[in-house]
Amino acid sequence: MQEKMFIYFTNDLHSYFNNWSRVAAYLKEKKAFHKAENTSHWLADVGDHIDRVHPIAEAFMGKANVQLMNELKYDIATIGNNEGITLAHNDLFHLYDEAQFQIICSNLQSLTSYEPNWLQSDTILTSIGGVTIGVIGLTAPFNAYYNLLDWHVEAPFSTLKKIMNRAKENADVIVLLSHLGINEDREIARRFPDIDVIIGGHTHHLLRTEEQVNNTIITAAGKHCSFIGEVVLTWDHLQKKLIKKEAYTTDITHLAKDLPTEQLLLDLGEQADEQLAHPVIHIKNPIEVNWFQPTLIMQQLTNTLKQWTGAHIAMLNAGLLLDFLPAGTVTYKDIHRICPHPINPCVVKLTGSEILEVIRASLTKEFMELKLKGFGFRGEVLGRMVFSGVQVTTDFHENGQEFVKEVTFQGHSLRPDKAYTVATADTFTFGRLLPEIAKSKVKKFFLPEFIRDLLLETLKKNAPHTFN
């Protein structure tokens, strides 16, 4: 006798609720079908369901996301870095208090005296026919952030070495929920052949059908839940082994919306608006924003960053502010609207020559007009870099190309070999946007504050004098 088992999954929604009622319609239909057919099925999420870019996630600190997952009767989830490092310790500690599904994260632990009640290392799912599926969850070890929030994430390979023997003893099939990225997933498949299925996320890769590495299949459904993933496992009860495993992803963007879910989102949106509507300041004149020209608010924000971190120099890209603020009462919702990014302040140590290279690169047309997606940035383009603590003088070539003519610090040229502390957005510590910053061996991150928290302080301090 053969038994088919189904795991449906989502990953990397990032609070993109435009798709969520379609997700609900699709999954409700699938769950109803399997219930009628009496076949085993589960619903899993692989992390980054939450993203504080959305007002609902911001107002409820992620708990509304959990409510939405409860409504669809999720069975299991792991956490991503957006759950793990964009919430204060206490907010994450209590995030899943009302969750009606299991949260599995095998490599997360609290550095305080207590672990949250919801946190499990791994679990067993049992099919209607008695097949046991061991589920392991892993999240990316961004400990430069986690440790500042009193959490620690163990290296994924170390964790797997510790728990694989137990998993093999207790389960017929092993499934890994991996918020690690496609390259890590492939390496895990090479090193741990007893894992049958890796359901992935984090790097937003879309696999329309499974990818096979040795004995393991790998799957993932992109980002924003434009696709829903499905794993199909076929177990032979006579042979007592898994004889087939498949994975697919289905485009749901053309589906009709689930009306009860749409209504719930509208209700949550109204509640979020109420929570975020508290006044911050009142201004008689609008606060202008420009991504490519100097503005007073961006200069003030950069000055605040320098003062708040105690760095020698600060630099922020003008694309962080998405819109102007009209005259009148400014609320926290307005601040979130114009600066929604889950981006933290950070300080790096650079030499004078490295700073000069960073400034030159940041003032190129290519940099300013770059439409960045990711690294916490949720805007349109990076925009012009604004500086505090250094005087940057530029000029133009005959072809109209701007170039850096001179950079001075406290009235003198930067000393090439001298080390300076530079405050900026943590966006630039990732990837290759500004290699000198990314490669800096000294990085200090400030958590749980976001850049918009500094914007709030900037407005409270400066707006009464400069915009009234």
Q: What attributes characterize this protein structure?
A:
468 residues, alpha/beta, Purple Acid Phosphatase, chain A, domain 2, 5'-nucleotidase,  domain 2, 2 domains, seven-stranded mixed β-sheet, six-stranded mixed β-sheet, 15 helices, 28% strand
Q: How many strand segments?
A: 25
CATH class assignment of the largest domain: Alpha Beta
What's the rounded overall pLDDT mean? Answer: 96
Count of discrete alpha- or pi-helical segments spanning 4 or more residues: 15
- Uncertain ranges: none
Q: How is the biggest beta sheet arranged?
A: 7 strands, mixed
Summing up helix and strand content along with how strands pair, one would put the structural category as alpha/beta
Helix content: 25-40%
In the sheet with the most strands, the strands line up as: 6-4-3-2-1-14-15
Count of folded domains: 2
In CATH, the homologous superfamily of the largest domain goes by the name: Metallo-dependent phosphatases
Content of β-strand? 25-35%
CATH architecture annotation name of the largest domain? 4-Layer Sandwich
Quick structural gist:
By secondary structure, the chain is α/β, with parallel strands linked by helices.
